[in-house]
Amino acid sequence: FNIVVLPGDGVGPEVIAAAQGVLNTVGDFYGHRFTFEEHLIGGAAIDATGDPLPPETTAACLASHGVLLGAVGGPKWDGGPRRPEEGLLGIRKAMGLFANLRPLQVSPVLAHRSPLKKEIVEGVDLIVFRELTGGVYFGEKTRTADRATDLCEYTVGEIERVTRAAFRTALNRRGKVTSVDKANVMETSRLWREVVTRIHAEEFPQVQLEHALVDSMAMHLIRRPRDYDVILTENMFGDILSDEISVLGGSIGLLPSASLGSSGPGLFEPIHGSAPDIAGQDLANPVGAILSAALMLRHGLGLEDEASSIEAAVAAVLAAGAVTADLGGALGTRAAGAAIIDAIR
Amino acid sequence: FNIVVLPGDGVGPEVIAAAQGVLNTVGDFYGHRFTFEEHLIGGAAIDATGDPLPPETTAACLASHGVLLGAVGGPKWDGGPRRPEEGLLGIRKAMGLFANLRPLQVSPVLAHRSPLKKEIVEGVDLIVFRELTGGVYFGEKTRTADRATDLCEYTVGEIERVTRAAFRTALNRRGKVTSVDKANVMETSRLWREVVTRIHAEEFPQVQLEHALVDSMAMHLIRRPRDYDVILTENMFGDILSDEISVLGGSIGLLPSASLGSSGPGLFEPIHGSAPDIAGQDLANPVGAILSAALMLRHGLGLEDEASSIEAAVAAVLAAGAVTADLGGALGTRAAGAAIIDAIR
Ligand SMILES: CC(C)[C@H](C(=O)O)[C@@H](O)C(=O)O
Ligand SMILES: CC(C)[C@H](C(=O)O)[C@@H](O)C(=O)O
After folding, report:
1. Which residues of chain A fall short of a pLDDT of 70?
2. I want to staple A249 with a disulfide (CB 3.0 to 4.6 A). Which of A59, A106, A179, B27 is the partner?
3. Residue-level pLDDT at B36
4. Which CATH class is domain B1-98+254-345?
5. Residue A131, min C-alpha distance to chain B (Å)
6. B125-247 has which CATH code?
7. Which range (A75-84, B26-35, B179-188, B207-216) has the least confidence?
8. Which of A89, A188, A246 sits opposite B219 (nearest CB)?
9. Who contacts B165 (Cβ-Cβ below 8 Å, separation ≥6)?
């Protein structure tokens, strides 16, 4: 399998190295060979080429079986002519990655580290489907001395494809979809609600569907997160709500994500950022990147057993308390990665 | 003082009645006379006139010393040609209410009812300044069979005036402003950040200013809410974040808001919604509406002592455990209002 790795900025290279180590171990065990081709993105790409997404990076990603990304961005590039984030948004668009999946399970051994009460977060098991190539992220922007605008736009087709992906996933889970919008204010949200309602009625009547407004959802996710199974929402609301709930499990450093298109390779990345304050110090939690590698095996390469073996190893290591500083542990990035490799073996 | 009351929908009339009772008591005690003129808004106005904001309502509000609003909306008007929310958005725009203030203090006696751990929420004391008449709420909307758009727009002047209001308030508090945007994606956010940075440097250098991205702010507000003093943000982000933190104090039913313009009357409303499921049953918590009346006395009518007397009475009643069902108590809306009136006396 030909894997493109995009270490990016900040702690990105460290967590990607840990994930590569885990993939090599799984490959040895199950008899697969992963070849890693490294490319530039984000601030690192700006420094080297002036372009946050060099054309070779895009070409390599499109030709790969899957892309593993670390993180992009950092204050170093603030105010520069190009922004590292352009690289991330550009590769999402170029690869047609319209569905961003963010699963969240609160581990019973870590529930006590949550800012929320244990009885509220214990047993949370949900997945966010965030639309990733539309909305205000990619609409036209204008700027004059006195005024700025951003256009939020959605087509029926853009809403349909991510909606189908969310409903299909719900069929294999607890069978409930919560669609989040701001239909009392936004026209795009009213279209969103119409399309989701129609796809539900026509194609997935056996799934339970509810609609929620983004503001009240921001409350409910803290008061009763266990009530949710699949959460479906547009790009910006998904960005905010999935970061909000990322604290439920004790550390954002634990969480993976998968970004998928209709065919072709997916992109897999931890949801934490580049964390420039701890970069290069062997302090970052590699679990988010390692679980992203597991999602790549499952959703990108169809290797379910291999994915599960990584997830089981991570669970065992967390249960044993072999964790990094963000979880109150003493392990560095490399040692935490090595502990997971040992557990797989 | 000539006060317009807009009871609106759902539990609105019940909580507004409680707030009027409190205002009458304060008036008797301090020697003010409040005359209440009641007008239609929202679903109630649609039912009576077909228009969620009848022209007489707007005229009366503009001619008043202050407006007290209950809540608007409910499933009854879903899918109708006019939406109750149009009334609320319309009156905000017509009165030029560009700054929505949402103070949040977590009462030590109620901290245990928060979904967050006591040690995280105890002592939280912050205020959100949400821009209220710009952004995606009021930009042009389009809709075809296949496509919908919403335009998010901000001018320099719109950002300046709410920014000044937030900085002025910070001077009387702990002297810190956190401005929230999505400057790595949105052009309006980049303008927002520029203007806030300039107003800070030119007019309020003694205040501490930090910028945060809306997604990471959604996390920080749960992990370390005590770190914030004044939070300044645009309309939609303010809607989401202020609802998110509304659960911190144990019940959204406790929270008031003030919406202010540059001159002219303000509008004061609890931040809870119309709660149609419990409407008409004497179950709603009147505290949010009563504290909104206190904000009207302070910010609208310049009656600081009178406002403080209401706030002290509410604190005493909460400490005594005389609370409604949302806080685990046995009191109805009327009895909870009466308890606060007794405490003022
Ligand atoms: C870095 C930024 C552009 C990005 C986004 O907003 O999509 C990030 O927050 C994310 O969620 O992946
Ligand atoms: C009812 C709705 C239009 C309104 C808003 O989004 O502004 C409400 O959520 C609020 O926060 O006052």
Report:
1. none
2. A106
3. 97
4. alpha beta
5. 15
6. 3.40.50.2300
7. A75-84
8. A246
9. B99, B129, B260
